[in-house]
Specification:
2 copies of one chain form a homodimer. Chain A has 388 residues and is of the alpha/beta class. Chain A has 2 domains: 168 residues, Rossmann fold; 202 residues, Dehydroquinate synthase-like - alpha domain (Dehydroquinate synthase-like, alpha domain), CATH 1.20.1090.10. The first copy, chain A, contains 15 helices and 10 strands. In chain A, helix 11 crosses helix 15 and helix 12 packs across helix 13. Chains A and B meet through strand 1, helix 8 and helix 9 of A and strand 1, helix 8 and helix 9 of B.
């Protein structure tokens, strides 16, 4: 195991009916900016529950945060914060609303010339301050409710970039599994595969003798495989919704990734597919990961075999046969929840390859992945493998 | 899964050489009370590392915190805090030093007439304030480094009582697995079984459809079973020490116990064996747990079968045979690491039974356990089963 630091002070309030806790969790006398998306919270009753719990607080609303939240939209939120002397942000939504709100919280106190630097110059300039955030999660998927990560898209340049900071970790997150009951099928499916691949990014690398981390990762994967289809089959199955929701949170709250190598190439490549073609985040991951598993099988042999054996019970055959069977099982799982895994399924052809490669070249990124050896040539090859 | 709240803001710095981080972790200008035990930290080099990292800080030392820390001793620490205007406590030691320091931190700011109320009246009067604490862990076992729990013994009355509060959770804990290298065999063995039984208290109850929590618990158990003997066989095996240390922390940082029923009868009965006879905490647990598994097998049938199958691969035979085999495997594991499981092994006879039962009767406790049906008659029976 490698040395590590772990710090996660997010207070989780989990279970049905927990939204009422808001009245105690939000600091007394706070000027709240309530952030949300396209208004689904007004249809599923969450908005009403939130407003009832916030009775007596001063609340300014900022709606319209879109999927893959746009920098351009979020800067309007920053202006509202300043105009209304907001001192607490309450994000009610899925990963996009939460990520966008984290950006607003950091940008409102940013001392540089342009808050875009938070994303474009993240390696040089760290976020050192942010307004406090609380969240009510309405879509299990990204894990944003229990981490300091945020991904923001600049629409005018089709750039999708990430930052992370302890300072944007929510003070609290309310996770009521009943929000799952009204989710459309595609959002549940995207959430299942998003959480699944968050685990894979931290697990499917090379072994460093970290059995707790490995087993926790496998625990989350097995739970998603078992519970995900139950949620898809019956949206009112509370236990399945709860287990799916908790699995998605555990997939990216930092715990399974401590002291082990991490990959994240699937996300880096996937982000470009969203930036260029607007393909859902979860879908992009299901396109890219199988390609990486195929191309980087030598890099990942031991962990693919362990994953195949412990998660899919694949123990027969040569090493290559077991790897093939494990990739096959993974692809079948994605397809079984309704997520296609080839670029052609989304109407995207080979023209995407050079566009994505150019992006990495222009940013000066020569190689990615857990060993830093997944080159831009590899990226081209991975996308080629996943064309159709 | 049941509703739950989870909050654990302890910053973990894990790995070899991490003690140097102290200089950054302790607040600038702090007046530190450095608390430790019998002086083993002066032999294994930890004291020197700590003092080197604290160069420039004002440090008052308070040594001599004993195993099962005594209220009488700790109140001397409280007096030092007040005399020297201490504003930060740094505990360097195992669970006893950490627990004792938590008590000092709470007692120093206690507003009631007598700090003993923190323990004796915990159900009525909660700890609302405490001095900030940091820790350098020297013995993996209790999990105290990443929770708000503390157990204190009043020597004059032979009472061992617990309290817990968010306010005594350490601000940070440094976990350097190299501290394990110099531990005596019995302390490692006690640590392994202590962590193991912390898991069992949160796991071996009844199912509530919480697969993440179950699998995380089994992950910790399997890791202790695999890595514990490696540590006992070769104290300089860094990876084994690291995995043992992280397993012990994960066993009692709250995570595996969220949303599930918990038992803690083993601890409640075990504490009395320590209070009356000074038997090591870990040893008392290994005496009591098999008795509870035997007597309460009907209560725990499903989870004992699941534990037997997933942890010990016991799948053959009738339900009763599988339960017997699972209890047998558990006892063999305790004995294999060198911890005896019968009262006679510690020179204690049947006279203990009434003494322990009387304690529960006097406190007005009629029944304990995850179903609240483990009566004082059951306690007598459990101890009788474990006599020899």
């Amino acid at each position: 195991m490698r040395n590590f630091e772990f710090y996660n002070p997010v207070r989780i309030c989990f279970g049905k009916g927990e939204i009422v806790q808001l009245s105690k969790l939000v600091p007394k006398g706070a000027n709240i900016l309530l952030t949300y998306g396209g208004g689904s919270i007004k249809k599923n009753g969450v908005y009403d529950q939130v407003m009832a719990a916030l009775k007596g607080f001063k609340v300014i609303e900022f709606s319209g945060i879109e999927a893959n939240p746009h920098y351009e939209t979020l800067m309007k939120g920053v202006a509202l914060v300043k105009a209304h002397k907001i001192d607490f942000l309450l994000a009610v939504g899925g990963g996009s609303v939460l990520d966008g709100t984290k950006f607003i919280a950091a940008a409102a106190l940013w001392e540089g010339s342009d808050p875009w630097e938070i994303l474009s110059r993240r390696s040089e300039r760290h976020v050192e301050r942010a307004l406090p955030i609380g969240t009510v999660l309405t879509l299990p998927a990204t894990g944003s409710e229990m981490n300091g990560n945020s991904v923001v898209t600049r629409w005018e340049t089709h750039e999708k970039l990430a930052f992370d900071s302890e300072h944007v970790m929510p003070k609290f997150s309310i996770l009521d599994p009943e929000v799952v009951f009204s989710l459309p099928q595609i959002q549940v499916a995207n959430g299942i595969v998003d959480a699944f691949i968050h685990v894979m990014e931290q697990y499917l690398t090379f072994p460093v003798n970290a059995p707790i981390q490995d087993r926790f990762a496998e625990s989350v994967l097995k739970t998603l495989i078992e519970e995900g289809p139950k949620v898809l089959a019956d949206r009112t199955n509370y236990d399945a919704a709860a287990n799916f929701m908790w699995a998605a949170t555990m997939a990216l709250n930092g715990l399974i990734g401590v002291g082990v190598p991490q990959d994240w190439a699937t996300h880096m490549i996937g982000h470009e597919l969203t930036a260029f073609h607007g393909i859902d985040h979860g879908q992009t991951l299901c396109i890219v990961l199988p390609g990486i598993m195929k191309l980087k099988r030598e890099n990942k042999t031991e962990k693919i075999l362990q994953y195949g054996e412990r998660v899919w019970e694949i123990t027969e055959g040569t090493v290559d046969q077991r790897i093939d069977a494990t990739i096959q099982k993974t692809v079948e799982f994605f397809e079984s929840v309704g997520i296609k895994t080839k670029l052609a399924d989304y109407g995207v052809g080979s023209e995407i390859i050079n566009k994505v490669v150019d992006r990495f070249v222009k940013r000066g990124i020569k190689a990615i992945g857990e060993r830093g050896d997944l080159t831009t040539e590899n990226i081209a090859k991975i996308l080629e493998l996943q064309l159709k």
